[in-house]
Amino acid sequence: MSPVTTQISRGTLLKRMQELETLPTLPAVAQKVFTLASDPEVTLKDLQGVIMLDPPLTAKVMKVANSAYAGRRFPATGLESALVTIGMQELVGICTTIGLLNAFSPWVPEYFDRRYFWLHSASSAYIAQHLALSDPKLSGKSHELFLAGILHDIGWIVMDYLAPDSVKRAYIMREEIREWSSKLERRYLGMDHVEAGFLFLRFWNLPEEVVFVAMSHHEPETAGPWKRHAHLLQLAIQLAPYKHPFSILVPEEQVISVDSGQKKLLTLAQWRERESNLVEHAKKFADMITGG
Ligand SMILES: [Fe+2]
Ligand SMILES: [Fe+2]
Q1: For residues 126 and 282, is the Cβ–Cβ distance under 8 A?
Q2: Does residue 34 sit in the same domain as residue 128?
Q3: Residues 83 and 219 in one domain
Q4: Distance from Cα 246 to the centre of ligand 1, integer Å
Q5: 177-204 pLDDT, tens per residue?
Q6: Same domain flag for 169 and 241
Q7: One domain, residues 201 and 125
Q8: Which listed ligand is nearest to 120 at the C-alpha?
Q9: Does 280 reside within a domain?
Q10: Domain total for the chain?
Q11: Cα–Cα distance between 237 and 244 in angstroms, integer?
């Protein structure tokens, strides 16, 4: 009989994290696409040059361009026409997501439902990216918001890898009490997923704002100069059509604002109605990108 699953201390989790010899990282090609796309002068041709150096990524991009998601009438025969179909915004999201799925694939999940996790992360990221595009103050930050969205719960993958029994134990508790909080995460897992994600991501060479925004997704007011970004991300996560077992939900009647103190004071239900098309697209994006 397997031993009873147990709680883990913060110190043990930290020690296991420090002992990790190889860390998954965002592949160079995804990083390059992200950096290039943040340059307003960049063209699809420049991105093509980077993507074609990675044949599996090229194959995936072609597959996406020719999927029902992209709505093409005639199949794209070359990378160039595939990129035109997809467009810059989606392309960055696709390359980042595929890069992350590959980076973490060696960390085989013991218990955590990885597909739901990525469905949640990818749909949140997609919504964050598109909400940013329609916000005049954040439209230049859409790629950063995608990246913050896809990484916001990465701490769960880290904890699942380092302490699967404790995650299993937490999951059982989650089922029993039907309500989850960061406090309970600290009790069962030694730290919450935000701290685990933060500790993990410091080894990645990411812009500081991406890490701070991602890790303030439950408390956007703590995001310092990036509060507006973090409020937007929190809204995107709450609108996401997919949740994972530990998603912390806010009530539908709660007012949730992308710009605290300003005009857009809507309840989550009102946002849901207003952004229903976006949510629908996010669902399709997440389905397509995690579907293998
Ligand atoms: Fe979270
Ligand atoms: Fe989340």
Answers
A1: yes
A2: no
A3: no
A4: 8
A5: 888 888 889 988 999 999 999 999 988 8
A6: yes
A7: yes
A8: 2
A9: yes
A10: 2
A11: 11
